[in-house]
Specification:
single chain; elongated; ATP-binding cassette sub-family G member 2; transmembrane helix; ABC-type transporter activity; membrane; nucleotide-binding
Length: 217
């Protein structure tokens, strides 16, 4: 979903153009623009999150509990907020449709590559791990969704008792969900910490956008 944030680039560039005109006329400044943009965008992003989740979550046979479902919604909502903040930063720094679109698409592609989904963090190249992985917002979203799905769950092994993951339940032809998390180096009990990091990333991108607007004003 975060990759689709590139669609917000042209809309924000139009908003930025209007802001530049109004700012030069002394109507409002970068702070008012950033705050209002954030507040106005929240209900739409939340609506997108809920509609997508109501359809895809249950079709995917994820953990069928209310707590797990709303935890999923929280992570996806934070993901979209972070993706929007990234778009704002790139579009403020490079107010060109082609350049902003290319940079946002590249950044999200890089985030997907180092976030843990394509390459597990336990085997990720040291350079990408320390240069990009830890400040990639998709890292924490993916980890949160993985823990939400696999913790406290048990799965049956395939035919012939063939288990894809090493598990203490292998003799019973079952896989403990925690064994899957162990392959990625994920631990339970880090919800608050990861949510805090996500909020910090969102705030960081917004703050950087505000600084760019101030300097370019």
């Amino acid at each position: 979903m975060s990759f689709m944030a590139v669609a917000y680039v042209p809309a924000f560039l139009e908003d930025r153009l209007q802001y530049v005109k109004d700012h030069h006329n002394g109507l409002y400044g970068a702070t008012e623009f950033m705050v209002s943009n954030f507040i106005i965008g929240i209900p739409y992003l939340f609506l997108i999150t809920v509609i997508f989740s109501v359809i895809s979550y249950w079709l995917s046979n994820f953990q069928p509990t209310a707590t797990a479902f709303f935890t999923w919604i929280m992570w996806l909502f934070l993901d979209l907020l972070a993706a929007e903040a990234l778009v704002m930063f790139m579009s403020s720094l490079f107010p060109s449709f082609v350049i902003s679109l290319a940079l946002v698409a590249f950044a999200n592609g890089l985030w997907m590559s180092v976030g843990g989904f394509m390459v597990p963090p336990t085997v990720l190249n040291v350079f990408y791990k320390y240069a990009f992985h830890y400040w990639d917002y998709q890292t924490y979203v993916f980890q949160g969704m993985m823990v939400n799905e696999f913790s406290n769950r048990v799965y049956s092994c395939g035919e012939g008792c063939h288990c894809m993951y090493n598990s203490p339940l292998a003799e019973q032809c079952e896989i403990a969900g925690q064994s899957v998390l162990n392959q990625y180096g994920y631990e339970s009990g880090q919800l608050g910490k990861n949510v805090g990091i996500m909020i910090a990333i969102i705030f960081g991108y917004r703050l950087a956008s505000w600084i760019v607007l101030i300097l370019h004003g």
